[in-house]
Amino acid sequence: EPEVTQTPSHQVTQMGQEVILRCVPISNHLYFYWYRQILGQKVEFLVSFYNNEISEKSEIFDDQFSVERPDGSNFTLKIRSTKLEDSAMYFCAGSGTGGSNYGYTFGSGTRLTVV
Amino acid sequence: GQQVMQIPQYQHVQEGEDFTTYCNSSTTLSNIQWYKQRPGGHPVFLIQLVKSGEVKKQKRLTFQFGEAKKNSSLHITATQTTDVGTYFCAGREETSGSRLTFGEGTQLTVNP
To answer: Are A80 and A68 in contact (CB under 8 A)?
Structure first.
């Protein structure tokens, strides 16, 4: 069964540093999403991406965050000047032609720890 | 903004007992999805409900979507230890864009 692949699985970074989280979506998916989950809490929407541009973003997704699809396959989330409260599990997800009218396939996540 | 609430937050059952989690949205939904997240894992899609009053079954799991399309439930009959995990509902507002908003989840533990 096709999988969404995320790298790295765990990233430790110093406060103030920039991190790039990477995702390889399923090839026939058209809609892509980033979510985050602070330990033991709910899954929070960050941003959705379609047709090489952001289609929607949440209040969390401020100027500190950016998303790109640099080579038409990989999908990245960049966090500039990380803060302690950015520590969380970050999930990439994708869905087919119907967007959120179809179930999302999540990657295994990147655990970001900001120290 | 849209809020999706789930109760209970935690549920401990003996193996063989039934389990139900309830989901309520502050706004009318176009669809509701359910996900399961095993400890240390990622959310895995279980099912989507679209129609008002819809009921779907997957083996021991029964999913319902309320008539007003603002609430939903997941019922597991005769729980097994493999049912352990957190169950999330997630809904998309009828009037919004692509955002799928997750509830807080119900963490299920099953004692053998």
So the answer is: no
